[in-house]
Amino acid sequence: MFYVYLLKSRKDRRFYVGYSADLKLRIKEHNEGEVEATRHRRPLDLVYYESYKVKKAAQERERKLKHFGAAYYELLKRI
Predict the structure, then answer these.
(1) Please, which contacts does 17-25 make with residues 24 or more away whose CB atoms are closer than 8 Å?
(2) pLDDT of 69
(3) pTM above the 0.90 mark?
(4) CA–CA dist 23, 74 (Å, integer)
(5) Using omega within 30 degrees of 0 as the cis cutoff, is the peptide bond preceding 43 cis?
(6) CA proximity to 50, closest of 18, 3, 8, 7
(7) What does the pLDDT look like over 7-22, one tens digit per residue?
(8) DSSP the chain
């Protein structure tokens, strides 16, 4: 399985979108400072995730969410 996830920083209350094949490990990496993009925003909480059987589908969903278009804002409304 592949996962698209949304993290929220407790420090600045901003969101981070990513994808991974191992969701638990990836969140651990974010919170231990191993991911440069979120290192300065720790601690982070997982607020949402979606699962996909196909890697390409997860990558496409992540891309749509990261471009802050309608998909991103619709997701924020739901959560």
Answers:
(1) 17/62, 17/65, 17/66, 17/72, 18/62, 19/58, 19/59, 19/61, 19/62, 21/55, 23/49
(2) 83
(3) yes
(4) 22
(5) yes
(6) 3
(7) 999 999 999 999 999 9
(8) -EEEEEEEETTT--EEEEEES-HHHHHHHHHTT-STTTGGG-SEEEEEEEEESSHHHHHHHHHHHHTTSHHHHHHHHH-
Question: Residue 49 corresponds to which tokens in the numbers above?
Answer: 């995730």
Q: For 31-43, what is each residue's pLDDT tens digit?
A: 999 999 999 999 9
From the list 5, 1, 2, the residue with the least C-alpha distance to 49 is: 5
Structure tokens at 54: 């196909």
Q: Are 6 and 15 in contact (CB under 8 A)?
A: yes
